[in-house]
Amino acid sequence: MSDSDSSFTLDGRIIAFAPGQTILAAATAAGVYIPHLCAHPDFPPHGSCKLCTVTVNGRDGSACTIQAAPGQEVRSDTPELHEIRRVLLQMLFVEGNHFCPGCEKSGRCKLQALAYEIEMLSPHFVQFFPHREIDASHPEFFLDFNRCIMCELCVRASRDVDGKNIFALAGRGRESHIIVNSPSGKLGDTDFAATDKAAEVCPVGAILRKEIGFATPIGARLYDHAPISRVDLAGQEK
Amino acid sequence: MTEIESALDPILAKYHRDPTALLQILRDAQDLSGWISPEIRAAAASALAIAPTRIDSLTRFYAHLYDAPRGKYRILFSDNITDRMAGSVALMELMLKKLKLERGKLSADGLVSIDFTSCTGMCDQGPALLVNNLPATRLTARRIDEICGLIRAGAPLDQWPAEFFQVEDHIRRADLLLGAPKKRGEAIRAALALGAQGFLDELEKSNLRGRGGAGFPTALKWRSCRDAPGEKRFVVCNADEGEPGTFKDRVLLQSFAATLFEGMALAALVTGAQKGFLYLRGEYSFLRAPLEATLAEMRRENLLGATIGGAKNFDFDIDIHMGAGAYVCGEETALIESLEGKPGRPRIRPPFPVTHGYLGFPTLVNNVETFCNAAAIATIGAAAYASRGTKQSTGTKILSVSGDCQRPGLYEYPFGVTIAQVLEDCGAPDVGAVQVGGAAGNCLIPEEFGRRIAFEDQPTAGAFMVFANRRDPIEAARNFAHFFAHESCGFCTPCRVGTSLVAGMIDKIAAGHGAQYEFLDLKRLHDILRASSHCGLGQAAMLALGDMMQKFKPAFERRLITRDFEPDFDLDAALARARELAGRDDAAAHLGEDI
What we know:
By secondary structure, chain A is α+β, with helices and mostly antiparallel strands. Chain A has helices at 23-29, 79-95, 110-117, 153-161, 222-225, 228-233; strands spanning 7-10, 13-16, 53-56, 59-62, 73-75, 134-135, 141-144, 167-170, 177-180, 207-209.
């Protein structure tokens, strides 16, 4: 097989791929960062956040869902695509209630880290200020839905890895929200546990450990040392 | 067994306790008490051995499933722009006033609730409403008065005057499909004479393209489904006619159902599918019983069921599957999700349904009109069929004409007809704009009325809404923007958040508070939604608005303030509560323009 049978170009750079790999997976393996939030190497493509929007042979699409194919011409690092990503981030910020300075996840939050990476200087749009509940019923975790970005990683992890099916996405449009599968609708009435995959996948501060707060001071956290584009490529996605 | 359990039992039994039928089960269960009560939720979840959240994810997704009581009479006013132009807003206000109600709130006695719903497909006979899923058409102040009386008296719907629920076909121009109904069985017999491959060849020669709007070659789709590996195959008819301004499928379903079912049987003959679904939008629930009757007749006539037309190995039957108020289910992968008893969120494509569809099996999804055309091709042959229309768009197209014209209704033309011709035929002399293809379509202005309805010029799924010169394009833009914000499934960021942002900006402009700032933001969002949305809903959500902003720029600019920007926070409105407490509403209690 010649190189061109198993490679595509990403912003002019030749990227090799294995059969079945998505553009995002191949790029990550080759050490090229494409911004993303809902994609996770341990889960099948989802394609909801749209941060990884790239231009493939002139058409826009999600790098996390499009299969890599020989000879594809992929563009990611363009002003137009950065503009799309910046606006999508602004949408996520105004849709929820994201107050970074008071959030325990600050410095480890992918949403925040991407906003720095893509140079989002303000939320720009009208804030929705939704009313969302906090669920503190579980002894070890609390859920702060104010920060949820509907990536469904917890839904997928609990269903596909933990086999517990604790979370689900309900509602539609801006009324979309995560619900907890228990008679009371509370996390405390589920068998959610610290060892669950779902307990570690939240990219933002919607699922947080109780009792451990600010153990690592702000300024010394994951994305405080290096931008998300470098941290995630180094495989420190935790 | 509790009372609820025993009431639920026959419903669960009807659907073989299959969680795939969850949406159907919940629709039927809702008829027990008008809503999905916690008792129904718990009983259904336990009987089906599913998480109760699966029920919640449906009741909170489908607009016509309720997790709170909605009253003995659930009134939903159709909220298409054509209903509004015919006075629906004033009629709803009249009804709210007469029944002393607030929109969206259940009356204290639990009798009635009144709200809006997306276009119910009665645009040629609006304003319209649904009462417990039954359409009431041609509303007037007098009729609203009568309806209020019947509600107050607690009269059951079958005792309401039948003319309230009269739904007219309004066929104004007939060609191949809308002429006299074909002799039943003719299409199936003709196709059987050709054989499966022979008919597929005929279909290919006809150059039939999908009537859902995208215009994909039908023969290619049928062949792809036939050739896809899979133990079994399914044929699905998309009768989720939710595009605002479209109602031609309603007439085909009401008056030409046998032709449609024959078309589906032809697809089964070609693909080898043994099972078909008609996905019928919830708003067309009133068509279900007559459709079931037609299916039963066709089974008796050996046009459905085992060995159709006496042909060995030609076994095919059709189930009707009801939607429950979700426009996005018109997208074929969302429709399949809904068929599987899930919220209608579009899947990642590829794979396409022809290889991975219902339950992962190869599935053919076509529009109602496409199947009817396939049946017509079997009957008259590809050559006669392709002699109509244009080279790239053969056959006819049914247009659903509504809005400011003298003769709204269905107009079936060979492809290639000009917008101007349609306007002349429907009696629309003083036209400012035509919205072709529904809310997700294009807005055309007089200098474009020479354009032709055809895939190669102005494609359309069939909506044709006429706006007189006196109409305000911003009102139509607002109506469409709120429609998309309401119907966005919420899966992807640009559509979930973007459609709401757009609705807010248009409201601001309409209220006289918008500046160039909003105008430019809307243009930016137009490009971003089209580029990054997950499915056609988000990609097309700003198409019409983009057209209107470009073609009616002065109308928008007249509404924009001259300042660079005005904040969204309205200081004067924020003082409303204080004024209320102080019992004041005089000029001095309001902030002036200079603030």
